[in-house]
Specification:
single chain, 430 residues, alpha+beta, Beta-Lactamase, Helix Hairpins, 4 domains, five-stranded antiparallel sheet, phosphorelay sensor kinase activity, Sig_transdc_His_kin-like_C
Length: 430
């Protein structure tokens, strides 16, 4: 009986020990599992928050080994994606900085997200102020209005406007950019068209001036011809007088048309045909064509160029330059005046100068004489048959020849026009 009782007690104690042991083992295992789960959860939170903790290292026998490997793989993938995104973002930002158009991106809270250097240049102030409300930075009413309309209507806006601070004309596009169902961006794109508008104005002015200049001789020719047809031709003296006027006006009309055509030829045919030229013989041949005009005004022409002066130049274009300058040297010279033509080859260039003893040009007008249709003295220019285009033609031809032109003049003393060209020239300069 005693042995039986001891046996029961031993079995009971053994059972209690085993139960306690199993409980302890399960408790330790649970705590280990909880520790590993907490570690896995912490790792996932770090990945979500774009942190870079080290990889989880578990034994292959661990029940969470495969899960840890998957989380490590996700972290590596996210790191690669982030690097690619940062690289692409830097590329986009760098590209945007090199764009010649102004770009500004606004978030849906109307705050500046990014802006490039061209936008700052156009606006006349630093615009890359991330997080600032655009209304505090954009100080041009027309642009602010376009941006506001885009925010209100979610529709793109387009208009030509003028930037107050820089006096720039821009073609403004404000674009609505939906990102998803709940978020959007607004992008302002400014194209600088100031130069284009200037060219348009010049074209309009040129057409207006040409129309006016053509109208003057045409009106004179029409008027005097009509008077002759109405009976004035029966009077010999009147007929001869009127026909001389018609002839002079027709010459002015011809000269004007030739100057206009010269400008057109310069613009349409910039190619050069370079050849070696004896400058002395070239000027002598040109002076022969002006012999009647030189004799009529009793002007003495002095050629101061060496017989062996050889240059490389486009002969046709140089001829336009020299013809215009000699013609002006005769036309605006005093009766009985003098004309000097000089040329010299230097180390890297050569020059040709034409000096006269004419009326001279005031200092404040010397820069403007190369403008199209500009005349120093309208009455004197018309009397001498000037079109106001001659020197602008000369300037364009000199520019086509990679040269420059300068003038030195004194009222009542005379003027000196000097053109300078490089020694080495190519047929098709870039």
């Amino acid at each position: 009986m005693f042995l039986e009782n001891n046996r029961v007690i031993w079995l009971t104690l053994t059972s209690l020990f085993l139960a306690s042991f199993l409980t302890v083992v399960r408790l330790v295992g649970f705590r280990q599992q909880k520790k590993e789960i907490d570690l896995l959860s912490s790792k996932l939170r770090a990945v979500i928050e774009d942190e870079e903790p080290g990889h989880l290292l578990l034994e292959p026998s661990d029940p969470y080994y495969e899960l840890a490997r998957a989380i490590n793989g996700i972290q590596s993938m996210q790191r690669d994606i982030s690097k690619d995104f940062i690289t692409q973002q830097r590329g986009y930002f760098s590209l945007m900085e090199y764009l010649t158009i102004g770009v500004m991106v606004l978030d849906q809270d109307q705050k500046i997200y990014l802006s490039n250097h061209a936008m700052s240049e156009l606006m006349g102030r630093e615009m890359n102020v991330k997080g600032q409300l655009y209304v505090n930075e954009v100080r041009t009413y027309e642009l602010s209005r376009l941006i506001e309309e885009t925010f209100q209507t979610h529709q793109d806006q387009h208009e030509e406007i003028k930037i107050d601070a820089t006096n720039k004309n821009v073609d403004a596009h404000v674009v609505y950019v939906p990102v998803n169902a709940h978020h959007f961006l607004v992008m302002a794109l400014l194209y600088d068209i100031t130069e284009l508008k200037g060219i348009e104005r010049m074209q309009m002015d040129f057409v207006g001036n040409v129309s006016h200049e053509l109208k003057t001789p045409i009106t004179a020719i029409t008027g005097f011809t009509e008077t002759l047809l109405q009976g004035a031709m029966d009077d010999r003296q009147t007929r001869e007088e009127f026909l001389k006027i018609v002839y002079q006006e027709s010459l002015k009309l011809t000269e004007l048309v030739e100057d206009i055509l010269s400008l057109a030829r310069i613009d349409s045919k910039p190619q050069l045909n370079i050849s070696e030229l004896n400058l002395h013989d070239f000027i002598v041949s040109i002076l022969k064509t002006f012999k009647p005009e030189l004799e009529k005004k009793q002007i003495e022409a002095n050629l101061q160029i060496s017989d062996h002066c050889q240059v490389n130049i486009d002969k046709s274009k140089l001829q336009h330059v020299v013809n215009n300058l000699i013609q002006n040297g005769i036309k605006y010279n005093q009766t009985g005046g003098k004309l000097w033509i000089n040329a010299k080859i230097r180390k890297n260039d050569w020059y040709l100068s034409i000096r006269d003893t004419g009326y001279g040009i005031a200092k404040d007008e010397q820069e403007r004489i190369f403008e199209r249709f500009y005349r120093i003295d309208t009455s004197r220019s018309r009397q001498n048959g000037g079109t106001g285009l001659g020197l602008s033609v000369v300037k364009e031809y000199v520019k086509a020849l990679s040269g420059k032109i300068e003038v030195k003049s004194q009222v009542g003393v005379g003027s000196t026009f000097t053109v300078t060209f490089p020694l080495e020239m190519k047929d098709n300069p870039s």
